Amino acid sequence: MTSVVQPNIGSDNENELGECKGCGVNLVEPYVRCAECENFKICLECFSRGFESEQHLNNHKYQIITNKFAIFEFGWNADEEIKLLESLADCGPGNWNSIAAQVKTKSATQCEAHYMKCYVINAKYPLPEMPDPPIRPPSIPIPFKPCEDPCRPLPESHRAQNMAGYLAARGDFQEEFDNYAEWDISDIYFSPDDKPILKNLKLAVVKIYQSRLQERARRKHIIRKFGLINNSNHMLRYLRKLPQDLREVEEKMRPLMHIQSHPIAHDMLLQSIGVELELKKKIKKLQNYRKNGVSSFRVAKMFEKLKVDRESSKSRSNHMSEILPYLHDPAALAVWLQRQAAIEAGLGNTVDTSLILPTMRKTAPPIDLTDLPGVEKLNAVEKEFCAKARLVPEAYLTYKAALIHEFSRNGKVKLAGARSIVKIDVNKTRKLYDFLIEQGHINT
């Protein structure tokens, strides 16, 4: 895609320039004209977006149409030259104040000096003398900026792993694709005494080696062209910004990147697919409105508000079904009442339910002690306790003996001491500790 700057000799009325084929606004200078399509002109904004139509592609040759360049003298562009000549024809030579008022960008002294220098005092009077070479603006020196030091990560670092062995200072990889391809030709030597069949065999091996080198170069080209070196973090940030549905599409289409003509083409394709998905969502939403008899956007707002209210009322009704299995549990009823009070107070999700509203879990059923070892050593009360606490008889008898021995040795047993001796769930330890105190086996 090449560009050429062309003058626009004629009226400066922007309505006569036509309309932009992309957005339809009246064109103003500078604008772009396609060199391959007939009478196809677009504004700079559409050109920067890469606007395309049925017959125009954004890789066509183009021309930048403008009068903002010098012809005879630097500081006077072509547009100002046209205004100067037109104002001279209207006001006549010598009326420099009126001429400067029409030119607008130059003073009367500047207009007179420029006219005398370029149109009167020259070798081709009364025609202006064209400079050779053409007037160009003075070049502005570009400050030298040294390039950044290439990345040299440690061999075993995380960044080196992300770079996949790429050595930025050398512009090459530490380990190439098909890294041992040279081994197959390392022992090949062409001798004048080789028989034709042996020579052809060696040439075939070299040809195979060349094809492997071409494949290696192709893979390098794809990696460099699509920016796949040291790009894992950028790719992760890029994927996080995408919606979930578009992220799944991107993962499926990623293997097809190498057949795209340009890296931007892949991004533009994903962008167009994202627009398509958004349009499908809007269409589905409009179909839902039509299905529910909604025919205007004003009614749609009311429909959405009523839908939210309906969902909230449904969630409140579900809270009653949560408490039905716990009607005989006073603690669960208290928790449910606290939760309802928080919801009615408008606390909603801002309340930390894990602290003030603990989750109501169904109590585990008692275990069956029948045929378990040691059950015959328990009395009826101990059997009931072990079943509810879900302790096997042998473990209960071991913990009981250890706590009684500690009580006989010290004369008392604290809860902290019991937990250091009975190293099981702290809730079960507390139940066992309270049960033994209740039965009179130990004391605090």
Which terms summarize this structure?
444 residues, mainly alpha, four-stranded mixed sheet, two-stranded antiparallel sheet, 16 helices, 49% helix
Question: Could you characterize the architecture of this molecule?
Answer:
- This protein is mostly helical and 444 residues long.
- Helices cover 49% and strands 4% of the residues.
- The chain is built from 16 helices and 6 strands.
- Strands 1-4-2-3 form a 4-stranded mixed beta sheet. Strands 5-6 form a two-stranded antiparallel sheet.
- Helix 2 (78-91) packs across helix 3 (96-103), helix 3 crosses helix 4 (108-120) and helix 8 (244-253) crosses helix 9.
- The chain is elongated.
SSE layout and pairing:
Blueprint lengths: L2 E4 L24 E4 L6 E2 L1 H5 L13 E4 L12 H14 L4 H8 L4 H13 L37 H5 L3 E2 L4 E2 L22 H30 L6 H10 L2 H10 L9 H29 L5 H27 L6 H15 L8 H4 L23 H10 L3 H18 L4 H7 L4 H14 L5
Parallel strand pairs: 1-4
Antiparallel strand pairs: 2-3, 2-4, 5-6
